[in-house]
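At this stage, I wrote out one protein, both as residues and as discrete backbone shape codes, and that material follows here.
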Amino acid sequence: MIVVDFLASIGQVFINFVQSTGRVGLFILEAAARLFQRPLYFHQILKQFLHIGYFSLPVVGLTAISSGMVLALQSYTGFSRFSAEGAVATVVVLSMTRELGPVLAGLMVAGRMGASMAAEIATMRVTEQLDALTTLSTNPLKYLVAPRIIAGLLMLPILVLVADVIGVMGGYLVSVYQLNFNASNYLQQTLKYLEVKDVISGLVKASVFGGIISIMGCYHGYYSGRGAEGVGRATTNAVVSASILILFMNYLLTALLFDK
């Protein structure tokens, strides 16, 4: 009997996973079908541009500069053991543009905006505002979800580009003013090994991460449970699922973009 119950619980977990995956897939297809259908709610899109992009700049910038500074210190500590201190500039710029910039910015925005999207839409679900939109012949997916997805796809690459610049600047400041690197040589090493592909790959990752954040935030909010508990659970699930998917997709995109 214990074995049967154990197997039944495993089966139920698997069934719930398949159901959730299918529902997310249908949600993505429905939202994608309405991204560019008329009417386009430009005021909602611009509002999300501000929330996802402009208002996320402080946390993304602070994360980027601190990461660049720490990366320079740790790289110098490691490379000094092999008398390869000159590689610090290369490691900082490649790490920021390829990996740390998009991943850290994605995680920060997921914690900030993923939770906000889920909480806002879940609250509208609890207070029956989504039903009111449908009654007024306004599709909730088009009015609420599509603008957030568009903003996530477009604004996160801009945030990552800013994070790359700030992170590299943080490494430069530490290397020049604390580790006594020659400023001119450091900049030459930074530009010598940086390729356009490195920057583009980070921006591609950022766009994918922005879509993941928006979709997960909207999905969990749209299908939230009733009451305060449902709103809280939707907010938590949005952040956790977006963060896990960002880390998972980061590996897949890295393997795809830099496959030799």
Remarks:
- The chain has a mean pLDDT of 86.
- The two ends are 52 Å apart (CA to CA).
- Residues 1-33 form one domain.
